[in-house]
Design a protein that fits this description.
Layout: H1 3-20, E1 25-30, H2 36-46, E2 48-56, E3 62-71
Antiparallel strand pairs: 1-3, 2-3
Length: about 70
């Protein structure tokens, strides 16, 4: 996968979150260990969120991204 194709599913889900999430709802995605920075940047640029964090796994690799959804 190229980086854009690898993020396509996240972008698709993010675009639909307003339909299913309440304001301040917690969103957690499992991510590939190389996707954290680019996905974090994309979310910050396109959506209203707070408490955006990348969480590492037991091997200290980026594994999850979580945030509170505030809307589009």
């Amino acid at each position: 996968f190229t980086q854009n194709n690898a993020l396509a599913i996240y972008k698709r889900i993010l675009n639909d979150l307003d339909k299913v999430m309440k304001k301040d709802g917690l969103v957690i995605f499992e991510i590939g260990h190389l996707q954290g920075k680019i996905l974090k940047s994309y979310i910050h640029e396109h959506y209203k969120v707070k408490n955006l964090a990348i969480i590492k796994d037991i091997n200290q690799k980026n594994r999850m991204i979580q945030f509170n959804w505030m809307g589009c």
